[in-house]
């Protein structure tokens, strides 16, 4: 009964919204007989500042959902895995107490908390993108009197996070030994074959004063000693970095030169082992004329510039690349009206549109893009729909999570596809999506031989606008007959717990029935459309794609 009542309430809520203008006619064409290259599953990477949330009730539930996307091939990156403390999470903070020292300076290793975190990942089909950081308190070279754990919380100045954990080590040999001992322990616990599948990188955004208080050369030294320690224990570990903020500028250029031809601080040899390279890319949303305007242009510009920097180094241009944080903006825990896009379908439609262009940029630059990591997870025991950049709130998935479920249904063989309303890549790099909306498409063939066709309707401005009336023209379908067509939708009325919560009156303490209704509303409903009639290898499907909507059609 509550589902019927909730559906009516959602319908009433949407009916009260400003009426959309006349629909936009859009033609999408897909040729199933024309492959267009590989579509790598770059979406399968996630991460968060707070490592200890992963072992808590809502964190474990969300990790289950992430692991189910592509079991054993989803990766999670977290900060603070070597930070000193009792394991109590806070905003932009976590700790494991993995390293302390005796009074006479001898190392004490305790892997209890790191084991709990990694065990939680692996039990749910998720593997570590293992960040070696941050600096343990006993090893920090911060000036006496510098606080170690920061006291930052939403609304505070961001530079408050830069406390003693950002400092270089007092002793680089001890730092390298820490990396070695942790790797050795993990080999004993998880086995070499398992660990060969992990990613290993050092630190986070060393070109940012918020995360690294040392110099460029001190970071290169930090990196060299950690990589040497990992490789001493596991010679074929998959190592890389440096996960710079943005494309990294001159800092990234100097790092790339160092790992190719510089003198290794730890070994004395030339260069540093490098299996993959990583940088970050963020958008810049703004609050304009009473609404959020997204900054997809800046996001894509960071991606393109980062690719170009790596491609310019002959020894590195074919290395796998992971965009180690790839998001609409830079701080998952930061509030503000410019971040009011996060709970609803602006975030989900932005995700579809931005990933499509990231794939396109990688193809244009000819780089080996391995992953684009979404820096969003969940914040335990916080208000419902608090507006953080996350994939779930209080154990209920947000609409954006369902776009990743759609990505997981795509095949890796891309097919030739076009849309009459898909904005050209160069226009998006120049000005984002400020005029006509972006109604785009990606088409693939799955391993089972199905056609999986993703389409989205995106605009930078979070305001009402006309829906798209889509005519999907398919060809290359083979012999005449009928085909089964299944549709999944994410929009304001479908797979959207946020609108369901608003329809319930925005309760901050939902009872059990309300919670179950929100969970039900968060799920994508599979709808079987009328059988598709194929004649002369061709067929067509008509559907409405609401503004900020994302749709997946699967044709058997």
TrEMBL record:
The keyword Hydrolase is assigned to this record: yes
Signal peptide from the UniProt entry: 1-21
InterPro entries linked to this entry: GH, GH39_as, GH39_cat, Glyco_hydro_39, Glycosyl_Hydrolase_39
Keyword Ligase: no
SUPFAM superfamilies: (Trans)glycosidases, Glycosyl hydrolase domain
Source species, domain of life: Bacteria
Gene3D superfamilies, A to Z: Glycosidases (3.20.20.80), Glycosyl hydrolase domain, family 39 (2.60.40.1500)
Keywords: Glycosidase, Hydrolase, Signal
Active site residues according to the UniProt entry: 205
Gene Ontology molecular function, alphabetical: hydrolase activity, hydrolyzing O-glycosyl compounds
Domain (Glycosyl hydrolases family 39 N-terminal catalytic) ranges: 27-524
One BP term from GO: carbohydrate metabolic process
Pfam family, one: Glyco_hydro_39
Similarity remark: Belongs to the glycosyl hydrolase 39 family.
Name of the featured protein: Beta-xylosidase
């Amino acid at each position: 009964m509550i589902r019927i009542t909730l559906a009516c309430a959602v319908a009433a809520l949407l009916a009260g919204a400003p009426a959309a203008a006349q629909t936009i006619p859009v033609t999408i064409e897909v040729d199933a007989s024309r492959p267009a290259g590989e579509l790598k599953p770059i979406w399968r990477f996630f991460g968060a500042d707070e490592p200890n949330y992963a072992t808590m009730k809502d964190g474990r539930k969300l990790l289950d959902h992430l692991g189910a996307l592509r079991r054993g091939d989803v990766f999670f990156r977290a900060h603070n895995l070597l930070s000193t403390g009792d394991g109590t999470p806070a905003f932009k903070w976590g700790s494991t107490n993995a390293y302390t020292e005796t009074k006479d300076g001898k190392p004490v290793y305790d892997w209890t908390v790191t084991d709990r975190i990694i065990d939680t990942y692996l039990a749910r089909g998720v593997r570590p993108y293992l960040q070696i950081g941050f600096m343990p308190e006993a090893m920090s070279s911060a000036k006496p009197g510098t606080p170690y754990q920061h006291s930052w919380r939403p609304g505070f100045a961001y530079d408050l996070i830069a406390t003693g954990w950002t400092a270089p080590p007092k002793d680089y040999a001890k730092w390298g030994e820490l990396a070695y001992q942790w790797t050795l322990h993990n080999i004993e616990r998880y086995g070499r074959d398992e660990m060969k599948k992990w990613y290993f990188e050092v630190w986070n955004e060393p070109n940012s004063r918020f995360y690294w208080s040392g110099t460029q050369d001190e970071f290169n030294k930090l990196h060299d000693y950690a990589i040497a320690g990992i490789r001493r224990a596991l010679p074929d570990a998959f190592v890389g970095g440096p996960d710079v903020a943005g494309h990294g500028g001159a800092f990234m250029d100097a790092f790339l030169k160092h790992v190719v031809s510089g003198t290794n601080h730890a070994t004395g040899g030339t260069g540093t082992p490098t299996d993959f390279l990583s940088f970050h890319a963020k958008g810049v949303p703004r609050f304009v004329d009473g609404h959020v305007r997204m900054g997809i242009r800046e996001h894509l510009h960071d991606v393109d510039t980062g690719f170009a920097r790596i491609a310019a180094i002959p020894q590195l241009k074919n290395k796998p690349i992971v965009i180690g944080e790839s998001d609409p903006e830079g701080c998952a825990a930061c509030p503000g009206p410019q971040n009011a896009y996060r709970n609803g379908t602006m975030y989900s439609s932005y995700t579809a549109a931005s990933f499509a262009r990231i794939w396109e940029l990688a193809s244009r630059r000819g780089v080996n893009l391995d992953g684009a990591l979404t820096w969003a997870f969940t914040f335990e025991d916080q208000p419902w729909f608090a507006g953080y950049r996350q994939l779930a709130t209080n154990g209920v998935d947000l609409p954006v999570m369902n776009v990743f479920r759609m990505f997981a249904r795509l095949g890796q063989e891309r097919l030739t596809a076009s849309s009459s309303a898909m904005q050209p890549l160069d226009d998006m790099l120049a000005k984002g999506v400020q005029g006509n909306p972006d109604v785009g498409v990606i088409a693939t063939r799955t391993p089972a031989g199905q056609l999986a066709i993703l389409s989205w309707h995106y605009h930078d401005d979070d305001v009402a606008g006309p829906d798209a009336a889509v005519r999907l023209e398919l060809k290359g379908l083979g012999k005449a007959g009928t085909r089964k067509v299944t549709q999944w939708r994410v929009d304001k009325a479908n797979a959207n717990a946020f609108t369901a919560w608003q329809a319930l009156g925005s309760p901050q303490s939902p009872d059990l029935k309300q919670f179950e209704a929100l969970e039900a509303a968060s799920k994508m409903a599979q709808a079987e459309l009328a059988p598709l009639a194929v004649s002369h290898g061709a067929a067509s499907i008509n559907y409405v794609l609401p503004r900020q909507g994302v749709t997946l059609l699967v044709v058997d």
